[in-house]
Amino acid sequence: MFKLLIAVDGSDPARRAVEAAARLAQAIPDLDAVLLNVREGAGYHGTLPPFDFEAVEQAQRHRQAQLLDAALAHAQASGLGRASAQSAVGAAAPEIVRVATERGVDQIVMGTRGMTALGGLLLGSVAQRVVHLAPVPVLLVR
């Protein structure tokens, strides 16, 4: 079995990454995919009462679930029959690599915003950091 982790964030590049993974699935019949969305936790700076903080956290969890449902539907419509969804909270690049390692994936697939190497370096591109940190190959889709 060949395992992919596909990082999804609701963007067009992430949708194209799902579609690229679906094309791989045509060539690799025993392909299993995990769609991962990483969100930052709600920051608490002491200006909101705790019940408002919980409401923000709940809204973020709900939005993340909606995003993953949409990504999973897109994956299945694109031909990824064996796909599941997972959520994580934290800094995107380290979380993507952590989940990939825990799941024992063979490759990470993710979209890129199309920045140049220099722009990615200056802006701290998530894709560039994943490439640097990942113990497995990373397929970047534009």
Compact overview of the structure:
This protein is an alpha/beta fold. The protein contains 5 helices and 5 strands.
Descriptive account of the structure:
The chain is of the alpha/beta class and 142 residues long. It contains five helices and five strands; from the N terminus they run βαβαβαβααβ. It has helices at residues 12-27, 50-78, 92-103, 117-123, 126-133; strands at 2-7, 31-39, 83-89, 107-111, 138-141. The protein has a five-stranded parallel β-sheet with strand order 3-2-1-4-5, with helices on both faces. Strand 2, helix 2 and strand 3 form a beta-alpha-beta unit. Helix 3 packs across helix 5 (126-133). It starts with a strand and ends with a strand.
Q: What are its keywords?
A:
142 residues, alpha/beta, 5 strands, 22% strand
Report the helical percentage.
40-55%
- The strand count comes to 5
Structural class: alpha/beta
* Radius of gyration over all CA atoms, rounded: 16 Å
Major sheet size, sense and barrel closure:
5 strands, parallel
Order of helices and strands: EHEHEHEHHE
The largest sheet has its strands arranged as 3-2-1-4-5
> Segments where pLDDT lies below 50 for 5+ residues?
119-124
Count of DSSP helices?
A: 5
What share of the residues does DSSP label as strand, in percent? 15-25%
Mean pLDDT over the residues: 88
| Gap between N and C termini | 26 Å
